[in-house]
Specification:
This protein is 56% helix and 7% strand. With 174 residues, the protein is mainly alpha-helical. The chain has a two-stranded antiparallel sheet. Strands 2-4 form a two-stranded antiparallel ribbon. The protein is globular, with a radius of gyration of 14 Å.
């Protein structure tokens, strides 16, 4: 059974994150669940996390599109992980909500698709904890373009400034 305890990527546990409900819109759900599962797979080496990402993408998009998008997702997550100077927190695979860092990843992809440059920069900087955001931006833009190519457009309302309040049931990302 999945728990709502965030998984800490890199180093020690910090204060608990607020969790907002899992997105019902497919594009946001793909990004959030994909980011969570791929980062968890990189960190733990557990194939079940990658399988969950595959199942989510292939059931929504079909196998051919899922293969292409998971390559873009992998590059995005690797870039974020490689450039991060802070603990990135994600929920355990199967969790029914998104934490702040997952919401920031969703915001990055939505900002790319809606050309919201200031929000993209703010969300990326907040997620990786650094002003050296070039590789993470490149990965986000490629993944956002791949999603766009299969008509998976995130809502403009999913673009959130890094300082937005992410409270359960009261988020712009809902």
């Amino acid at each position: 059974m999945a728990t709502n305890a965030p998984l800490v990527i890199r180093a020690t546990q910090t204060a608990a994150n607020n969790v907002i409900p899992l997105q019902s819109r497919a594009p946001e759900r793909l990004v959030g669940v994909g980011f969570r599962c791929w980062l968890t797979g990189f960190t733990t080496g557990e194939i079940g996390s990658w399988e969950e990402a595959w199942n989510t993408f292939s059931s929504t998009l079909g196998n051919d599109h899922a293969k292409l998008l998971l390559l873009d997702l992998s590059q995005f997550v690797r870039a974020v992980s490689a450039t991060s100077e802070r603990n990135i927190r994600v929920q355990a695979p199967g969790c029914s909500g998104f934490c702040r860092d997952e919401c920031l990843a969703i915001s990055m992809i939505a900002a790319c698709q809606h050309n919201a440059r200031d929000a993209l920069r703010a969300s990326t900087t907040a997620l990786i904890g650094s002003d050296d955001i070039g590789d993470a931006l490149t990965g986000a833009q490629k993944f956002a373009g791949g999603l766009r190519s299969v008509n998976q457009i995130l809502s403009a309302e999913s673009v959130c400034p890094a300082t937005c309040a992410l409270r359960v049931g009261k988020s712009r990302l809902m």
